[in-house]
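ok so I'm stuck.
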Amino acid sequence: KHASSHLHVQHSSQNTETSIHTMSTLLPSYPNNPSFITDQSLLSIARHLRLLGHSVTIDDTSHQYRLYLAKKHPNNVLLLHENALKSRKSASFLEKRLGMGSNLSKGEDVLAPQNFFIVKSNRKADQLLEVTKAFRLTFSQERVFSICRQCNGAIVPISDLEKVQDKVFDSVRNKFTKYFQCEKCDKIYWGCDDVNDEAQWHTHYKKAIQYAKRFSYHGENEHQRTTTTNEADEDGRRQIDASTAQITTTHNDASEEPKKDSLPVLPVLEL
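replied:
not stuck anymore, here's the structure
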């Protein structure tokens, strides 16, 4: 496959514009099961990729440290927005370490093309489609909700239901028998006892699954909608956001007992 990899960058303090080209016009062969590294600027993408079951490390220390993390394993991929290449403060450093432009770094300092991806879209919906298309991230019922969208920890089943006795209301325990917990932040999750019985799914779980399916890879033809996503998509996303329950781990975390509509539930959309 061939695709244009031209980036057009303008530094704010200058009237001159710099055309930046990657060293190869071939689309890189991205890892089949990538783990991502990014910063808070792409938080929405990070949470969605976690929803799909992919590890995403969010680090806000520096570009240099994120590059270091990306180089630690061949399956690691650095995600950054092209705005980082327009910043006078970071553009020169990134161009050098990503093998762009004329000021190229030598040898091992350069991050391989398959280990970074530059997001060009500004609209969140388009960003999600852009990344899932590039890495062909399909929806998998086995992977969805396997990673905590809040902290990136692994979500595992709870075998001892005594652990949830003081963390959910009786009405929840009467309806759901399967509970899960993040190994890292200890957050409790519930909302689906049987993935094949959609009628008993919690509303928020159902909407999250619908959203995960919509913003995942469906093949090249389907992803032509990346450039035609309409305002209805944004309206739908906002409606789902508005219906998302605030996740709560224990009743003791708050000064007063949580309201019924703020019970712990499988994390939905916090875009």
